[in-house]
Amino acid sequence: MTGPRLAPRRAVRHARAALGITWRAAPTGTAADLLLAILAGVTPVLVAALTKLVLDRLSGGRPADASLALLGVGLAVTAAAGVVLPHLRGYVEKERIRAVSRLVRRRLYDAVLRLVGLVRLEDPEFQDRLQAAQQTGHLGPTQLTGNALGAVQSLLALSGFLGVLLVLSPTIGLLVLAAALPTLWMQLRLNRARVAMVLHLEHFQRRDFFFAQLLVGVPAAKEVRLFGLGRFFGDRMLDELHGMHRVEQRLDRRELWAQGLLGLLGAGVAGAGVVYTVTAAAGGRLTAGDVVLYLAAVPGVQGALGGLVGQFGAIHQALLLFDHYDQVIRAEPDLPAPPTARPVPPLRDGIELRDVWFRYSPRHPWVLRGVDLFLPAGGTTALVGLNGAGKSTLVKLLCRFYDPERGTIRWDGTDLREFDPAELRQRLGAVFQDFMPYDLSAAENIALGDLDARDDPDRLRAAARQAGIDEALTALPRGYDTLLTRIFFDGPDRDDPQAGVVLSGGQWQRVALARGFLRADRDLLILDEPSSGLDAEAEHDLHTRLRELRRGRTSLLISHRLNAVRDADTIVVLADGRIAECGRHDELLAAGGGYARLFTLQARGYREDAAAPV
Ligand SMILES: Nc1ncnc2c1ncn2[C@@H]1O[C@H](COP(=O)(O)OP(=O)(O)OP(=O)(O)O)[C@@H](O)[C@H]1O
Fold this sequence. Notes:
The protein has 20 helices and ten strands. It has helices at residues 8-25, 27-59, 66-113, 119-122, 124-136, 139-168, 170-216, 221-226, 230-282, 288-329, 391-398, 421-426, 442-447, 457-466, 470-474, 505-517, 536-549, 562-565, 585-591, 594-611, and strands at 350-359, 366-376, 380-384, 406-411, 414-415, 428-431, 524-528, 554-558, 570-575, 578-583. The structure holds adenosine-5'-triphosphate (ATP).
């Protein structure tokens, strides 16, 4: 497995950014941790040196005096510090990690919210990066800082012990250093392989998570059971897990061999040193204290060197992981913003699509191929067409989730590109075909349509009444405060059947409609298949209410049930990416085109149903 590389300039930029995040998130904690790391680095060297001095004094035959007592106290205090310091560092580090996680997460979501369109979010490569950034974003700064501080500690311990060894016996000092060099080289190689493995495993992990979610999650539960897919997905999940484990095992074996051999080499050198120091002490060339100092210094040097290499490896890994986060944070805006956005005026004339061409990316086919359409202010336009004709795509362009590749969409003559998208959307209301059921209370589910209405129960109820769901919500165990989910419960609430409820598909659609109706006063209301989940009576009821609600206002209605759109001021048929027909219901019927054919087909279906014996 070849190791992934990060260009040096990029690595330095990431290191600065990651350390900057740590400093901004927890300046005091980071400074305290640095101080503690320095103390932790010098403590073992001090303990070893003081032990040698005490032993030398004791074996030197001089009577005990105050200086020996002082050495003893110094040794006790330093040894105690050696015990306490790791715990203190552990606490400070956890505080720092929590602060960094909060800051990293806030910045990540701020960056995602800066993407006002959908292009980047729908790009699979960006999604992949985003997932990785969500999972590992905090590891960059925390791992980098933790290991940089660890490296400071290791460097201090290493230089302290090496200094002592070189003073004591330069030969042994150099021997220990030489014995550590192969370890250093091998560790660096292993580190690179481990980083490569972590990145390689990300893909396995995501697929493993996907299959696991299918098995345990509610959304797929019905199909998994009905189609008997449990074993199939389970096997796929285990394949991914096996794949991961095989990669890990290969590296673990390599590490085992390398570390075993290098451990033996290190032990050999250390053993030779012990023989030398003991012989020298027996011959009077070294003291008993020197022997103890040597015995402490050899593992100290080897440990510090190993630690240092491990820390550099972890820093390398942290920088690579930070790359995902950095790229998400630095993502360019997905929709060009005008240097100075024009204010969005109330709609007076209408919205005009002029020769609009659109495809989701150059890799995708054209969806819209020169659409010319005018949505007059104050009128209801219905958009119909076969599955995949591009109706929802046109809606997304009106909301400026994307820009047309060619042509323009004009709001009272001004290109939508000249507006700030957030301000434009303030003037729109919409109920999307794939509306979102939120695991929140009924009131919150509606209020999300206009957060200003959060504390205005009358407005929420009025919207619910218009969507025909007020009665059902009032009858819930806790009325509008009832949670429309059973996911977030713990404690006594878990067993309380009143705590949360599950709505039917049609009821959810009405809640989504109520959310949309909170914005019924906006300049344009878009309803994409608002009644697909409603029963026939409810659908009729809804469209009657809609007509009253939207009288004199601009709306765009999409529906496959042509009976529901027959009263629209204009009906537009989208086919092959263009406007194929346009007119009032009677005109289109008389024209005998695609609309007339579809309408007749649907009407005949109803008539035949009615005529069929029950
Ligand atoms: N995010 C996307 N990325 C790529 N292609 C897409 C995306 N969304 C839709 N499409 C494609 O664009 C075409 C038009 O889809 P769209 O959803 O606009 O059709 P529609 O008329 O609303 O269909 P339906 O009546 O089934 O809701 C389809 O071929 C679809 O596969």
